[in-house]
Amino acid sequence: MFKKIIVYCFVLTLFSFSVLNNFRELVIKKLNEYTENYPEKIYVQTDKPYYTMGDAIWFSAYLVNGTDHKKSDKSNIIYVELINDKDSIVSQKKLYTNNISAAGDFEIKKEWKPGNYLLRAYTNYMRNGSSDYFFKKEITIWSFKTDEVLKNTNSESSSNIEISEVTERPEIDFYPESGYLINGIPSKVAIKVKDKLNRNISIEGEIKDSDDVIITTFKTYEFGLSLLNIVPKLNKTYYASVFINNKEIKYPLPKALPQGYSLNMKNNGSEIILKALGNSPIGLKNSFLVAHQRGKIVYEKLETEAVNEYAVKLNTSQLLDGVTSFTLFDNSGKPVCERLVFIENSNNKIDVNITKDKNSYKIREKVTLQIDLKDIIGNPISGNLSMSITDLDIVEKNSRNENIKTYLLLNSDLRGYIENPGYFFEKENDPKRRYLLDLIMLTNGWNRFIWNDILYNSHQKNDQFKIEKGLYIAGQTQALKEKGQGITATTRLTFLDATPSQEIKQSSINGIFNFGPYVFYDSIPTLIEARVKDFKSDAPKNRDINILLRNNNYLSPLRSHNNVLKQNKFDKTVLTNFIKQSQRVFEMDAEYLKGAQKLDEILITAKLKTKEEKREEELDDRTSYGGFQTHRLDINDITGAESLSVFDLLRRLPGLSIINDSISIRNGGTPRIILDGFPVEMDDISFLRGSDIEFIDILAGVSASAFSRGGNGVVAIYTKLGNGNIKNIKRQPGIIDFYYPGFYTAKEFYSPDYADSFNDNSKQDIRTTLYWNPKITLSNANHKAEISFFTSDTRSKYAIEIEGLTEDGVPIHHLTTLQVD
């Protein structure tokens, strides 16, 4: 009997080890799949943190592999959008990059309203994940009313307040180091204190047990953070005791579990010392520890002995910078505790060197800068950079602001808002900074990793949103007289530009065709033809085909409020100076244009067309019946129309009755539906939304009689396919022609050359952005870049801010100054 028990235990041990080893292999396999099918990240640098009406937003968008921050080999197209506080996309740029970044700009239209806007950037492939991972940055566009600045800004340089300023009960949250307190196991507990206005609070308190015995004390520092050490005991509970206005307030700590696991961590910079602990009957036996950086495995340990603890020392000299996650799985493969650590490897340090040709400059004087990057031992480094230079008296910039380094290494991988993230990268060997950064790791959970998704969902699934390498022109060929019936056909696409080109494809059995990818920047006249048989056939009804372009299915403009980079608290004086100077620039530009447009001795008499009249003419030009419609619905007049369905919009027109997906006119008849001048059926318009539609006309009487079967009236819908970019589509059986828009080409930032005698020196130069360069390349052939520009008429100290990435994916942020006397 005894021998049978021994054999049984031996077999059970082998079985458990086999199961555990299979789980270890699963974790490693899935993490490797994650890095091979990596997510993408985008960061956008703007020339300024805030703007005024009539200004321009200059930006550079960086697209990277989300695991190592090198150039992404997936997408080549970046979408950058500006969204107002009504959740409407006011402008979108489609940018192409075959490198790591793309330049762009937004012209702030005078008809836009001041307020907080959302700058959002993503790729089509990123849409397969949560929109929380899109780049999102809050940007304020101010009016010229400085009293609004005084009313709506906070001049405090920090949001920390003293406990004496607190009038209501503050919020105190506790974060045990590994997720739970365990009886008998020493644990660190991070503390975060805020009030209802989300201000950090400097506070002192005591930790007491259920017998009111003081166990330890605590005191919060910057960002309302603190740390305490505790060893929970059986049958004891604990609370924090804080006195506010001479009144004790008690905050209970999480209740300790009788059994469990813990990861205790000490980060010494050059090495990490980790202690794993477990107090179950088998301790840590059959547990599995894995550490990874953004999916890349840096350490793993399979424990086969029944030990209650073990220690690990991990050298960081070969690791990337950023958040590293340590996860302990129990013997059933369940993640039981996790600890985040921030790696700062001194070997990854990059020096940004800016050499000026002078110590200081005069107004309208040429400035020449030499820029280069060097690693820790002085070797030149290749990289891609962007640069903004702004007046520090009107544009507040400091090293604690959000930048590409803080975003890629902190914000994009952690949950929640991180205030003044640049603080955690300011002083290289500051113990206090490192201490507070570790508290950020304890209080902000891992954002991108949910282990069930990683382990048990396939990363090689057929993603709904495909990787885009260029522009695609897609649609469907349909039988002319069949209701929405897709049929296979021979299709031919022709670009009618300076060098015409053609491509022929057979549409699918359901009529789906897709041409591309193409890369071009100007709108190109485009022709798509289709034939039932082929283009050589003279068979009757060979051209009886309707061609419909496929909607590009752009994102809903509704903004996600998660992981948005918030505005910093700006100094009121600096912000007021900026608005006043921006107003002067605006007024000078208007006056200058007025003077430049004066005509000598010419009298012109004409009626000035209003903006509304010009809009009506623009819409009338798209129709065959001019302005003789009975009713018209202009999408520009509908707030939030982008998110409405075509049926929601039709309900706004008088005389129409919409029941489910059917349309009837007042007399009970069914109207003829016209889409971009071509008769269609209900199924052909059911997919349309407000973001696809330019305007809708209702025709009756003579206007409707111009269309066959228009006796019951006509509903004429005119689209702006491609999110408002493809216009003036002309249709007839077997053929469709239109102008297809290329990628957006960024405008060139205007930088005057005062050495050129032809330059107009009479106009005062007080621009708020002195210089902007979105693409500075340091290649293997030339490790230095030379930048030249002229100063303006403003004597001040200017901030030179450089952001970018090395070829090896190391993010760079550098801030220095330039003096103009």
Topology diagram in text:
Layout: H1 2-36, E1 40-46, E2 50-52, E3 56-65, E4 77-83, E5 89-96, E6 101-107, E7 115-122, E8 135-142, H2 146-152, E9 161-162, E10 171-176, E11 187-194, E12 201-202, E13 204-209, E14 214-219, E15 225-230, E16 238-244, E17 247-252, E18 261-267, E19 271-278, E20 288-293, E21 296-302, E22 309-315, E23 322-329, E24 335-343, E25 351-356, E26 360-361, E27 366-374, E28 383-391, H3 404-409, H4 431-443, H5 451-456, E29 471-479, E30 490-495, E31 501-506, E32 512-518, E33 524-531, E34 545-549, H6 572-596, H7 611-620, E35 631-634, H8 646-650, E36 656-659, E37 662-665, E38 672-675, E39 678-680, E40 693-699, H9 702-705, E41 714-719, H10 721-724, E42 730-732, E43 735-740, E44 769-778, E45 784-790, E46 796-806, E47 811-820
Main location: membrane
Organism: Mariniflexile fucanivorans
Subcellular location: Cell outer membrane
Summarize the structure.
This protein is mainly beta and 821 residues long.
CATH fold title of the domain at 161-343: Immunoglobulin-like
Would you identify the regions where 5 or more consecutive residues have pLDDT less than 50? 7-15
What proportion strand? Answer: 35-45%
Q: Please report the total strand number as a whole number.
A: 47
The largest pleated sheet is described as:
5 strands, mixed
Number of helices: 10
Return the CATH class of the domain at 161-343: Mainly Beta
What Rg do the Cα atoms give? Answer: 32 Å
Distance linking N and C termini: 97 Å
Instruction: Give average pLDDT, whole number.
Output: 86
The secondary-structure class comes to mainly beta
